[in-house]
Design a protein that fits this description.
The protein is mainly beta. The chain has 1 helix and 27 strands.
Length: 407
């Protein structure tokens, strides 16, 4: 809307005034997630996000009707990955026990309120992103084990927005067996590595846990930086690589043999061989003691592309654990954020009346770039848009089959 006030002067001339204007908003803000913080008081600026957006932990101290929904969802704030502004809602979902996860808010606690029948709005817009599908895998044939893997590195990796004080983690694909902590040996021949980076690594590993931050020992072949032994002595600590610091065995590359042996005192020795018969220590440094806690330690083949946007392929042969061919192994990505395919949906409620709308693309949550989903408000019929009491965002299928996990 525009207007101007003109002045009629005493001599009948007219002095034109400035043009003023205002705009009527054609949207309502449901929630921009900017006001949340760590204040432990309900209903005040800076309150914790789970006081409003209720998750599977079942926070139920606010008034009746605010009970948690689902049992596989956890909400938190993200300040590192946002679509605009400074914050976003992060939802971790786990649909492997229950078929769906959902976070839900009462509209009375949101900027939008319960009356959505204003400003001529016609659609609900949700901006969201996820993580890509896992690219790691394993296959075996003819005495060889082929492993595909991605990941930034097995070293000192931080997620976006993290600092070293938060702890480091690894990103790789792991083919492993779980054994009781004790004296163990694992060895393998690395036949070949697809070059995704000069520091792409493949080799044998002993690991305390399947968490990305786990302590471990690793003997590996790189694409163009020789053979290495490295370790992380405590969870989340910085990694150590004495071989490359000293420059030993740098000229060697695939094909080559690597071995790890854990002694009674917990120290883990790395060795290499060019023929599988004569073995040489990877470092002259004292062998590290890597604590391996009960009930299990994990021995296996580790592969990282040293390039989060690419996948390398590594061929292993002659893989043995304690002198026997490896068998009964499992495999999974370690420390790599990835989403399984599960439907994304939005649900609106008005008292006991509800309607759920599912995203048309079942793989939408595997897109790592923000996208906007516009849902016609008419799609939520019979929920009256003039009295929306609750809004929820979820993944999976209520009453359906068990799903997967992701963020």
């Amino acid at each position: 809307y525009y207007w101007r006030i003109d002045e009629v002067n005493s001599d009948s001339t007219i002095t034109k005034g400035r043009v003023w204007s205002f705009t009527v908003l054609d949207y309502l803000i449901v929630d921009d997630f900017e006001s949340y913080g760590d204040v432990a008081t309900i209903g005040v600026p800076g309150q914790r996000i789970w006081y409003v957006w209720l998750d599977g932990l079942g926070y139920n101290n606010p008034p009746p009707g605010y009970a948690g929904n689902g049992s596989g969802s956890i909400v938190d704030l993200s300040t590192a990955i946002v679509n605009s502004g400074g914050q976003a809602l992060r939802m971790d979902f786990n649909n492997t026990v229950v078929p769906y996860s959902v976070v839900e808010a009462a509209t009375s606690n949101l900027l939008v309120g319960s009356n959505w029948n204003r400003n001529g709005v016609k659609a609900l817009a949700l901006s969201f992103r996820g993580y890509p599908a896992s690219t790691g895998g394993v296959s075996a044939a003819g005495g060889q084990i082929t492993v595909t893997g991605s990941g930034a590195d097995i070293w000192d990796v931080l997620y976006p927005g993290e600092v070293a004080a938060d702890g480091y983690h690894d990103e790789f694909h792991f083919v492993y067996v779980a054994l009781a902590p004790g004296t163990h040996t694992i060895q393998a021949k690395v036949e070949s590595i697809v070059n995704t980076n000069g520091w792409a690594k493949a080799g044998v590993m002993m690991r305390t846990s399947l968490g990305g931050e786990s302590s471990h020992a690793f003997a590996a072949v790189t694409v163009s930086n020789g053979l290495v032994q490295q370790w992380r002595l405590t969870d989340g600590a910085a990694s150590t690589n004495p071989v490359q610091e000293g420059g030993a065995v740098a000229p060697l590359t695939a094909p080559a043999w690597v071995r790890l042996t854990r002694a009674v005192d917990g120290s883990i020795e790395g060795r290499y061989s060019v023929d599988g018969t004569t073995w040489t220590a990877l470092t002259t440094d004292p062998f590290p003691v890597v604590p391996m806690n009960p009930p299990s330690m994990y021995l296996g083949l580790a592969v990282t592309s040293h390039n989060a946007g690419a996948t390398t392929t590594v061929v292993f042969s002659n893989v043995t654990v304690n002198g026997n061919p490896i068998s009964g192994y499992s495999n999974q990505d370690i420390g790599i954020l990835s989403n399984s395919t599960d439907p994304l949906y939005v649900i609106l409620k008005s008292g006991a009346t509800s309607q759920r709308v599912v995203h048309p693309n079942p793989a939408a949550i595997q897109n790592a770039a923000f996208q906007q989903w516009n849902i016609a408000l008419s799609a939520f019929s019979p929920v009256p848009v003039g009295n929306v009491t609750n809004i929820g965002v979820g993944t999976g299928t209520p009453g359906g089959a068990l799903g997967k996990t992701g963020i």
